[in-house]
Amino acid sequence: GQNIDQPTEMTATEGAIVQINCTYQTSGFNGLFWYQQHAGEAPTFLSYNVLDGLEEKGRFSSFLSRSKGYSYLLLKELQMKDSASYLCAVSYTGRRALTFGSGTRLQVQP
Amino acid sequence: EPEVTQTPSHQVTQMGQEVILRCVPISNHLYFYWYRQILGQKVEFLVSFYNNEISEKSEIFDDQFSVERPDGSNFTLKIRSTKLEDSAMYFCASSAGLVVTGELFFGEGSRLTVL
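Output (structure tokens, whole complex):
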């Protein structure tokens, strides 16, 4: 199978920075996506990495290391509304669909 | 902003009944998908559809499931004889191009409860 691993839960404080890690199987890797999913809602797109390095988009940044099969999502200046699940998803060669990890449930506390 | 729309938002059905979930993808998108998410579990791929045919399906998508694009706008998922374990949120998604380069847009989901 194409396992994608990420921590199940994380807790952080409002205004702080949090890093959510994701590891994946590198064979056939095409690209990596991060999605945000609030409880009971649809996943919404956050970022896409295909090359090594950091992609910054406002308070959110995503990093990729293809050789290590590793990515992280960095959230800065945390707000209460950032409490959600963060899904790591990978595109593999020969597959039209994304493979999702189990998601990391982030709770932001005051 | 264009969006993927799904109906119904919630459906309750008896085991063994047929269910049809409907989706209207974004109008200029070419690739359509169904995913499901059992409560508390990960988003799982069911099927992808392109050029009026299934392009890929997972092992979950067995003979009980079918998809159809009956007209130029709707994309449906049919479950012929529902089982208790089919209870889940079903998400429709679409993309303009191959997902390897394009963003996947999800609908708000249809929650299916099988009793």
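The two ends of chain B are 37 Å apart (CA to CA).
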